[in-house]
Amino acid sequence: MSSRSINKVMLLGNLTRDPVIKYTTGGTAVATFAIATNRAWTTADGHTKEDVQYHNIVAWSKLAELVGKLLVKGRKVYLEGRLTTRRFTGKDGVERSITEIVMDDFILFNDGKRVEGAPASDESNQDAGAPQPEPQQGSANETVNPDDIPF
Predict the structure, then answer these.
(1) Distance of CA 71 to the CA centre of its chain
(2) Burial of 65 by CB count in 10 Å (0-12 exposed, 13-18 middle, 19+ buried)?
(3) Nearest by Cα to 29 from 39, 21, 37
(4) Which of 92 and 151 is assigned the larger pLDDT?
(5) Which of 55, 110, 117, 132 is most buried, by the most CB atoms less than 10 A from its CB?
(6) Are 98 and 83 in contact (CB under 8 A)?
(7) What pLDDT is recorded for position 3?
(8) pLDDT beyond 70 at 151
């Protein structure tokens, strides 16, 4: 009987560089990029300190292609994945190891800036000719027959 374990990483940070998309010999897309996370605290003597951590991220297949289309340096992203460590031999012949997060899912934040192709959220920018929602008909005292509900 095996014991249960969890390997889950959740990060919210900013991309430090644009993703790099490469393809394996089998044609599978691989995206690599890094995000920075910040932590601030106040010391006992009242000084504010800040620490920045950099995380290497890897995405595979269709997720990698989506990352290549949507993520750019500076954008805020929430991501989930799993921690992996791999070993390799560098060009200088020295064996090295690297810890990465293999991404499973992400949510893109726009930080209040307009995203290319997204509609403006400001009502003053809405098209005057665009259809407006119809006002509600009826009163609060109106009864609803359950047989009239289509589901």
Answers:
(1) 8
(2) middle
(3) 21
(4) 92
(5) 55
(6) no
(7) 83
(8) no
Whether 52 and 5 have beta carbons less than 8 Å apart is answered as: no
Written as one string, the DSSP assignment of 36-47 is EEEEEEE-TTS-
CA distance 68 to 133: 37
How many CB atoms sit inside 10 A of residue 31's CB?
21
Q: pLDDT digit string (tens) for 61-98?
A: 999 999 999 999 999 999 999 999 999 898 899 999 99
How many angstroms separate the CA atoms of 32 and 60, rounded? 9
Q: What is the CA radius of gyration of the chain?
A: 24
- In order of their start, the domains of the chain are 1-39+49-113 (2.40.50.140)
Q: At 14, list the tokens.
A: 């900013």
Structure tokens at 17: 């560089």
Tell me if 81 sits within 8 A of 101, measured CB to CB. Answer: yes
Return the pLDDT at 37.
Answer: 96
